[in-house]
Design brief:
Layout: H1 5-33, H2 36-56, H3 60-69, H4 74-102, H5 104-109, H6 113-125, H7 127-135, H8 139-162, H9 168-192, H10 204-238, H11 241-257, H12 259-277, H13 286-318, H14 327-352, H15 356-403, H16 413-432, H17 437-454, H18 462-471
Helix pairs in contact: 1-8, 1-11, 1-12, 2-6, 2-10, 2-11, 3-4, 3-7, 4-6, 4-7, 6-9, 7-8, 7-9, 8-9, 10-15, 11-14, 12-14, 13-14, 13-16, 13-17, 13-18, 14-15, 16-17
Keywords: Cell membrane, Membrane, Transmembrane, Transmembrane helix
Organism: Flavisolibacter ginsenosidimutans
Protein name: Oligosaccharide flippase family protein
Length: 472
Amino acid sequence: MKQSFRANLSANTVQLCINQAFSLAVFYFLSKGLSKADFGELNWTLAIFLTAFALLSFGLDQIIIKKIAAGEDRPVLLSLHFFHAAVAGLLFYAALFILLILFPSFFSHHQALLLVGAGKLLLFFSTPFKALAAGAERFRTMLYMSVSATLIKSLCIGVLFFENKISLALAVPVFVLADASELVAGFLLTRKILKTPFASFPRWKAYRNFIKDAFPQLGVVLFSSALARVDWILIGFFLPAFKLAEYSFAYKAFEAASLPLLVIAPLLLPYFTRLVKEGRNLGQNESVQLLLRAEMVIACLAALCLNVVWNPLIDSITGGKYGSVNIRTVFILSMTLPVLYLNNFLWTVHFAHGNMKLIFRSFVLSFFVNVAGNLLLIPLYQNEGAALSYLLSVSVQTIFYLSYQKEEKIIGWPSLLFCSLCALCSGMLYKYSSLQAVWMLPLCVALYLFLLLCTVQLRRADWQTFKQVLKA
């Protein structure tokens, strides 16, 4: 049964806030307790496997969400998806063992690879269950699926941190245990709450057709997955491990600032899919336009707050390790936030309409811009070069989406421009004021909201329209 947008928003917000809070706690304990070299090595290893398994997913999670939202058979889709995860994941891990035999010296320098890979393999096996819950718009169940893993990681890493025993050798097994718990929770909750058993063992013809449906999305996944962590991987190759530690800390803060996007993004795809199925014109839909403008307001507010609190807060809680050294990197990454929000919004519109070839071309373009930018800018500007390359690639992709809209033209750049300028002007108050830091955040936010009202990015009628969206 279709749930309201409000119920989905509430459940997804709770699950993301809980998971993000615990994840940030784990990240902080590791960044504070490990040396920069070990912290950088751990993040490089995680980046390798997160990229690899995202590539192996073939984008089937998005296909599953769309198919379930369209009312297709859930047990059959679950069985096909899990079969793919099992076969692809086990073949990949077998290839990893072959590489160990062929290149033992490389693995002796990166000893965490095999164990971290085992944990991420188990996590990969859990993706069909989470995709099923997302497609069914059961975001509370998604919370239950993932909360065990975040609790285990935060509890165990927290104990090691406060006992002053935290090390790479002890942290990695904790990650594996947490990943295994997420697989078990996903399996049990799918049976008990979602009431979706596995169908019969998939036949080769059914699996072939399933993968064939994903082919238009496959190219997108290949390039988008590589795009997501290529900067981390290349920093690990070009620069010392401590530089990746600094960049990963700044990037994690950037990801935390994008939490509202993580809340709203999973809701947009089934919502837009329903609107398209009903024959609605998204470009002329008032609720869709309001959602876009609200995203721009939130994105620029998050960017403003991140820059205002960064230096005094981060240096105080990390003992000066990651604050001032990352000021310029964080500023560049924060400029990406509103562009990233608009990018995701336009991607969802195109995906809901099935414009997979266009999406594929956009990711190919963005990928090559990002790789070229990283290869050129990391040796020259180090971490700031990686951040600038990411900003450039996301901007190019967004311009591409805007340029190739057809009958449902969504005008997103005016809100992006006005909200960004309002945030930038408000940030100037922080940069050139001599007031104490405790007063700066509320003053900057108040000025930002005032400027939004002046530029009509916030309107009196917005709340009534938004309430109608929540009831949808």
